[in-house]
Amino acid sequence: xxxxxxxxxxxxxxxxxASCAYALINQSICDEIMLVGRTPERAxxxxxxxxxxxxxxxxxxxxxxxxxxxxxxxxxxxxCAGGYPKSGSNRLDLLDSAFELYxxxxxxxxxxxxxxxxxxxxxxxxxxxxxxxxxxGLPRERVIGTGTSIDTSRLKTLIxxxxxxxxxSVCGYVLGEHGESQFPAWSHVSVGGKPILDxxxxxxxxFSLLKLDDIEAKTRNAGWEIYQHKGSTxxxxxxxxxxxxxxxxxxxxxITAVSAILEGEYGERDVCTGVPAILTRRGIAELxxxxxxxxxxxxxAHSCAVLRSASAHLAL
Length: 316
Fold this sequence. Notes:
With 316 residues, this protein is α/β, with parallel strands linked by helices.
């Protein structure tokens, strides 16, 4: 009685933003969803369409459109506004346009009195997360990017197809940039608690088709494969966002690979990249520092260097 509704605002109502709202509604994660888009008519149409889900869901989620001025009482703001990379380019090529966009968006959101958590889902997500952190002035634990959450899910799905097991029985993480320099920390990937490296060494003939290099390449290129065939990726990342939102609002203490600001973890500073983090009602409660092999540590440092180099010209 009298408790405040759990409100989530989604900025950007394209494929990702709309799919995210759909996932939040179907999983009954929050009480209210507010859509904010550059084209009010499109935002209105998305909200109207999504409102017609309610008769077929377990709980009713209030969904409506709003503006920057209405963001002040939101618990979480999800940033989906942005473009898609063109053929032959990569996510980092979207950096300058994203910087221009969020230089305008974030100050207007903060002017509304917003004091919640940001979840960045726009590419290049690691650098977008860092710029939102700098522009908002919020503590680092309250600015989170989707990071390698979706890449980790892709890794688990691919491994599960070869073993075969339920993907949820695979534990492990993709670290670093949500992009070309990402990598799976194979030393920490396990299936039912058993390290995958032990599984492969003990059963070389049974699992001869499971090649780690191939799995890594397929994980890294999965998004591009989808993009080339249908022009966008949105269902997987929408569920990843919903998972992060649920973990936060429910104070789950769930460990998920997300884009996080590093301040000494893994020996890195002044960079935002994909690492496992404990998600709670206050945001990131703690970053989980895996004991990486020397090769994995070198790959992590390289990925951080790629991100620093790409963003060096920005006034962050």
